[in-house]
Amino acid sequence: MRLFFARNAFPLAVGAIAALFLGLFFLLPVLKVFGASVLDATGRSFTLSNYTNILSNRFYINGLANSLTIAAAAGFFTVLIGVPFAFCLARLPIGGKPVLLALAALPLVLPSFVGAYALVLLFGRSGLVTGMLQAIGIPFDSIYGAKGIVAVYTLTLYPYVVLPVTAAFKAIDTSVEEAAQNLGSSRLRMLRTVTLPLVLPSILAGALLVFIEALENFGVPFVLAEDKTILSVEAYKLFVGETTDNPASAGVLGMLLIVCTVAALLIQRGVLSRRYYATGSRRSTPLLAVSPLIRRLGAAWCWIVVGAAIVPFAAVVVISFLQFSGPVLHFAVSTDNFAQLFQRSYRPLTNTLLLATLAACGATLIGVPIGYIVARHRSRISALIDVVATSPFAVAGTVLGIGLVMAYSSGILILTGTAVIIVLAYMVRKLPFSVRSAGAILQQIDPSLEEASINLGVPPASTFLRITVPLMLGGIVGGFVLTFVTVASELSATIVLYSGPWTTMTVAMFQALEGTSPGIAAAAATVLIICTLVPVALVYRLLRRHELSML
Fold it and tell me: Which pTM does this prediction carry?
């Protein structure tokens, strides 16, 4: 027994820290939300009347239907544009693939609700494009409502489909396709009956990520929904408007959101369990020999999709340097919007950078060791930790924020209203990025180096710090940057947890939109875009230099 603990001290310590952190700041808040949903207004007696009241209310039933419909539509359209995009990147001989892939991934690190506001500036009732269309006699109402929300989700979340499906297309065993063609199948039929079914797991995985992200998103429906009921927004409204000791109604909506995401995951697993998808590919799949017309059409499709996703963000940057008189836009270059944004204080910007840095450091310090034990010390316990550590992705930020407030607004540990609770929420929400990036890079590192070090008497913890971490540097930095940029643009948990001194840029933009100050909102959006793009560019250059120095 003593020998067992001596050999496994490091993974046991990591597992204990992970269990403590996730138990206190993820599982406990979720249980608090569940408890609120089954307790009466006093928070003392068990009742199911909260569910009865919500599920018998047509307003909230419509909200549930709207949320599910919009999330499903977003999943469908991202697949519709993402799968052909991925096929063109993986199988067609088109130029500029590295640039296309980089631009395709860019929307993942840009704030989605900034994209929503950009569409309002372009296609809103007083939008630039709306005015041009109406001036030439083309009827166009506005982008508000379900169509606008789905459009934003499609243009900002399609990389969730493109990235895994591109890898799946490249991993197909060509002998399967060759067998189909030898049996007389045309290329189109082969694509429909052989190729696409083989990449179905990746398609469904990407669609599931889009569905979950769309279901829990707060910022985009806040900007575009208008009078359309969306569960994530209504949960926030019910929580801030609660007058009783127990936020029962908000708890019910929070649990409905969690149940919907779990149901989507189970449906995906059920579909995939019915068939076998593995092939025996041992080399990269060759490009298809196609006509110049097909090659040009494929390249055009990719550039159109990338352009449609990036243009709104570029437009909001340009518009932020134009002059506004109230809600009216004037075509005169000005920096007044930025002056008004920072007139009172630079605190929102410094808060954003500070909180994002602390959260990224914390998520990295906890997530990388978790990723290590999950990849290197496979067991039922590590598998359970892996599931719990990646589960926050499926919990809406508003729900987690509500749970944290309920758990830490009284008692021994009071965190509500402090920066600590905001950082903890960010760490929990973005922990999956660190765990997954660390686990992925470890799959490419030969464990024999670590085994040799341990066999020579170096303790596992020292081996991890001196040998494994330097080899994992690229994956660690990638996870850190992804955490930083997504935290900098986070709104759903922030809007529940922030207090006056800890206002962030996302909250400043939220307040500007509530106060009908489009110029200030555009300036805040531009600052957010800069906060996300600059770190990505800097780290990319540093990693390139590191790679060149290793050659």
Answer: 0.85
